[in-house]
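Repro case for the chain-ordering regression, as requested:
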Amino acid sequence: MENIEKLIASFSEAEVRIFSFGQFKIEHKEFEIPDQWGRDKAMQLFQFFIISRNRHALHKEQIIERLWEENGTDQDFKVALHGINKALEPNKEARAKAKFVVRQGAAYKLNMEYIWLDSEKMEDFIAIGNKNVKSNKEIAIVAYQAAVDLYKGSFLPNRIFEDWTTTERERLQILALDAFLNLAEVLLEEQPSESLRLSEAALNIDNAWEEAYRIQMVAHMINGNRVQAIRAYQRCKEVLEKEFSLEPLPATNQLYRSLLS
Amino acid sequence: MSNSDQTASFLLRFTQKIFEDEKGESNVQWRGKVSHVQGNDVKNFSELKDAMQFIQEKLSALTLSSIEADDSIEDKEGLLNKSLDIWKRLAKNYPKMVVDVIKDPKAQVSQIQEQLTSKAEEISSKLDLNALKPPSKSDINILSEQISSLTKLVHSLEDKIGALTAKK
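-- result from build under test --
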């Protein structure tokens, strides 16, 4: 539980907080950061640093090639970087070192020491949940709950047409789906209605995720609602037929047959 | 004519389902999802040819939208010819890839396993590769249908170029 408490505390301790799910928003502990940063490229560059935070510092040329493609210049990069520093450190002196985007020679990197990032914390909570799901159900529930609370929607939704965001969005979506369904499964016996809500949230992310329908079937049965359990199966069958031209897996069919007997 | 570069990005997701069928035999099923990034469009598939068809449709639309109204017939023909060449190469290589999968499923499964996440690796380590069956008649029929479908698509593109040449 200590690790969870540390993670929760990191929110209030951070100088800058970044919200990337559902909408993009940045908060500073001491002042308000505007939603618009002059040129959009400054915000794009900052979001690119967020996605690349776990890699080695990126060379300026690599960044220009990725974000501006063939038309970018050093000047474009400098202007965008200045836009970031102006938004995050408005009182920084001209020649002082930047605190959040640090330079290593000709390479640049985000300094996460002062930054709280929702997607990163979601991953940390999920890791704790996965580690404890068999050995300590209570901790797993708290961790998964914290993780799903952070997932407010698609990662950087204002950049869905930019291919440099796609891999990270997909990776986080799969992690979130697993967290929703793991929590739904752990809560089945004690809180079947909450399991229904969580599995429905997973289906809103991906309506062909078969495991979510199985959880719904069981949750309805625990609630004593056989009709709704059968409807969940029928919905699953229809979606799989429409999306993949496939039958449900034997485990789902077997569960359905047990509902009828 | 227009020289502007355009990019189409596609993301492929595969989900592996390992299950026992009614007879108690182990089976593997792959469910896929292909996303066209710039169009924010998605298609689920269980057959790779459906993903290829989706990609082809998006690329064809991109090529057609790139041919400006004031381009000459020669320019249009050149662009379509180049686009056709790409699909001819794909039509030539894609069936081979499917044949490789059917001929040597162990090698293909091993390759995929290397790319899976730790969770998928944990599941796939339970898979008995020796239990995989050799190609059945139905596998070969599916392959034939896929080759036939791609051949039709290539013919269709050839017809379009023929029509343009006739107009010229």
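Ordering looks correct now. The helical segments of chain B are 48-66, 73-103, 105-115, 118-124, 137-167.
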